[in-house]
Amino acid sequence: MSIKHLPNVAFLFPGQGSQYVGMGQDLYGADPAVRDLFDEAETLLEFPLKQICFEGPEEVLKQTRYTQPAIFVHSLAIDLLLRRQGIAPDAAAGHSLGEYSALVSAGAIAFADGVRLVKIRGELMQRAGDLRPGTMAAILGLSPEQIESVCAAAAGEETVQPANFNCPGQIVISGSVPAVHRAMELAKESGAKIVKELVVSGAFHSPLMGEALHGLKEALATVDVRPAAVPVYSNVKAQPVTSPEEIRALLQQQLMAPVRWEEILRNMIAAGHDDFYEVGPGRVLQGLLKRTDRQAACRAVGTVDDLAMEKDG
User: Running DSSP on this structure, what letter comes out for residue 7?
Assistant: First the structure.
């Protein structure tokens, strides 16, 4: 099989929020290699991954410690099947958790190590959310500068900051519950079109995740990180990284730093990547790309039917 490894092809890997009950069940039933992937992951995770993905219930699947491994394994199953069809990227990026999927896709981290890391990361983030409760909110219709101003005015003695710069006019904020609620009201007063609190188990990508930092650093120190075979665009820098030392450092910083997703997409497009695949469950990243650059092509591939369309195409 010849691999389509064109310089304009990039894989985008989704993060938390893209999960749904039933995810991966069609893939598992259709392909022995996917069965091996899910079975290996389930053994490493020591919880019933397949049952949670395929049957739910949703209340369990949406718990961070289960959501993160579920999306990770589903994404790498699609990655495997796309490559079998001869489609491989020349660059990759992942939204928050998706950065781990991107690094495994790029050969920087082995699949088994990736499973262990996302399990630990999910558990640490859930525990940090329990210890220092926080929340997140999506704000549509304000500029990054307006959001920064709103957060500064709302913070007081507490914490609230931008967490995801997703696309033009869509920014997620994160922090302590009172500070986020104040920021939501200020955003409305500043003319935001939509202000919506998100259902999350913690203030991700904020200093309230600091409780998870030491544990993640220890886990990363035990993992063999290799030079990435293709550039992986960092959430923290919005630039491509390949060196193991930088990958380790940036994955630690990522816990408390904003995801610069819009900037990542613009930088990838500027580097010549205009043929994107969303690799994993859902179509969130496809929508964000369309709102960032209408000219960029993006196919969301997360099911057997999606793969069949790629094969036929």
Answer: T
Q: How confident is the model at residue 99 (pLDDT cuts 50, 70, 90)?
A: very high
The listed CATH number (3.90.550.10, 3.40.50.880, 3.50.30.50, 3.30.70.250) that belongs to domain 134-201: 3.30.70.250
- Return residue ranges of the chain for CATH 3.40.366.10: 9-129+208-312
- Which of 74, 95, 205, 273 is the catalytic position? 205
Q: Residue 271 above 70 pLDDT? A: yes
pLDDT category at 311 given cuts 50, 70, 90 is confident
In CATH terms, 9-129+208-312 corresponds, of 3.40.140.10, 3.40.366.10, 3.40.50.720, 2.60.120.260, to 3.40.366.10
Where in the sequence of the chain do the CATH 3.30.70.250 domains occur? 134-201
Condensed to tens digits (0 to 9), the pLDDT of residues 225-258 reads: 999 999 999 999 999 998 999 999 999 999 999 9
Active-site residue flag, 101: no
Active-site residue (options: 96, 174, 190, 206) = 96
**Catalytic site residue 205?**
yes
Structure tokens at 251: 């994955």
pTM over 0.90: yes
On the CB side of 285, CA atoms within 13 Å amount to: 33
Angle at 43 between CA 105 and CA 104, to 5 degrees: 10
Q: H helices within the chain, ranges in order?
A: 25-30, 32-45, 49-55, 58-61, 64-84, 98-105, 111-131, 144-155, 177-189, 213-221, 244-254, 261-270, 284-292, 304-312
- What is the structure's pLDDT at 2? 47
